[in-house]
Amino acid sequence: MTRTDNQDPQEPRWLSAEEQQLWRQWLVAGPRIQANLARQMQRDSGISLPDYEVLVNLSEAPDHRMRIAALADRLQWDRSRLSHQITRMRNRDLLDREACGDDRRGAYIVLTRTGLEVVTAAAPGHVNAVRELFTDRLSPTQASQLSAILDDLLAQFDLPSGCPGGK
């Protein structure tokens, strides 16, 4: 955003009433959609939304495996959070940890057969909920506009190619 020529650069550029309403709608909409998706996932599949996020990323990775650091980056989670999540999921045989042959300190997280079955069973209900709560509520024009807007917002974070929102 640009400042007017006579505005003191030390002064905050307060949000207009419309901008504040937009910002607050953004802050309310995202968490409410996420909360509804989380309830659907738990109710229909017996797993948490974070479980599903990990399982989906591993299911889409080559050989259903990823380095821990790459998975943490992809999920935008700190490594401590991911480590605790991995432990819980390993205890339920959803994934496993394998040593990385070329890096003794590194490890891969690998989707197990059980994990693949769980994510495969959970996906249809999840996509139906995403449609109900999000995509089906937008016209094709609105969806296209929102996609372009989100691309613009995400561009500031220099995401690598292939990441959601990356160019």
TrEMBL record:
Tell me the SMART domains matching this sequence.
HTH_MARR
Highest taxon of the lineage: Bacteria
What Gene3D superfamilies does the record tag this protein with? Answer: Winged helix-like DNA-binding domain superfamily/Winged helix DNA-binding domain
Q: Which InterPro entries match?
A: HTH_MarR-typ, MarR/SlyA-like, WH-like_DNA-bd_sf, WH_DNA-bd_sf
Q: Indicate the secretion signal residues.
A: none
According to the entry, every stretch annotated as the HTH marR-type domain falls at 19-155
Supply one GO molecular-function term.
Answer: DNA-binding transcription factor activity
Among the GO biological process terms of this entry, one is: response to stress
Give the matching Pfam families: MarR_2
Q: Which PANTHER family match?
A: MARR FAMILY REGULATORY PROTEIN, TRANSCRIPTIONAL REGULATOR, MARR FAMILY
The name this protein goes by in its record: MarR family transcriptional regulator
Name its species. Corynebacterium variabile
Q: What is the lineage of its organism?
A: Bacteria, Bacillati, Actinomycetota, Actinomycetes, Mycobacteriales
